[in-house]
Amino acid sequence: MVMISYDENVLLAQQEFELQRYPLAVQFASYALACNPEDPHACRILGMSLFELGQVDEALDALEAASLEYPLGWDGQIALAICYGAIGKRSLSRDLLMRCGTSGELDRDQMLRVATGLEAIDEPTLAMEACRQAGVLDPDSARVHYRMSYYSSLCRYPVSVTEALIKHAINLEPDNIHYRVGLVSLLIRLDRDEEAIEAIESFIPSHLDEISCKCCLKRIANLFFDAGDLDRARQAAQRRSELEPLVVPAS
After folding, report:
1. What is the residue-wise DSSP string for 184-248?
2. Is the dihedral of CA 236, 237, 242, 243 positive or negative?
3. Which residues of the chain have pLDDT under 70?
4. Are 176 and 193 in contact (CB under 8 A)?
5. pTM (predicted TM-score)
6. How far apart are CA 137 and CA 127, in angstroms?
7. What does the angle CA 5 – CA 38 – CA 6 come to, to the nearest 5 degrees?
8. What is the DSSP letter of 171?
9. What pLDDT was estimated at residue 39?
10. Residue 232 burial (CB < 10 Å; 0-12/13-18/19+)?
């Protein structure tokens, strides 16, 4: 039986993390920690992998342990802050997120994660500002503008602002069905069904497989049904039915 050394386990854990194979990263980091329980590098990889897997309590323990011995880096600090928010330590989460967000050293994706963390602790105005800063870093990012549209709605900005942001995201990525579905949902709420149909009709049914939100599919089906386009209505309803969980009859 070939024994893998401690250093090899840490290296393998890092490689698996970078490949987004988080269960394997957890496995190799745990092997490394079995040899050296206080190693901050293995603790950080373990904590970040558990965070990506949604195991907040375990991630928090590992990230805190790592931070006592070695700087976590911005990604680790953002993850730690989000973990604090998830367990109810909102002030601590906000302060750490704001420290990261105002450092001037984050890239676009890191700023978006800061925005996500702030929104999760019910700080939509701060989330909007973090997202705006992400837009300064990458003004041509459709993702940033779409996220800003979401935060603008939470902040109760005028609907015209939200609509303009979504439409700008669509202009930057015309084939992104998710942005179009967001616009359609907004236009339906505003009783502008004809515009909603115009925004999405050329993408149905070709992009239906990309939509996994059952509520969105129901709105789309109803939109086309009310417009008398029964074929597209049926196709959207069929896609929604495919997402329904299989019910196994009781024996």
Report:
1. HHHHHHTT-HHHHHHHHGGGTTTTGGG---HHHHHHHHHHHHHTT-HHHHHHHHHHHHHTSPPPP
2. positive
3. 1-6, 245-251
4. no
5. 0.85
6. 16
7. 5
8. H
9. 85
10. buried
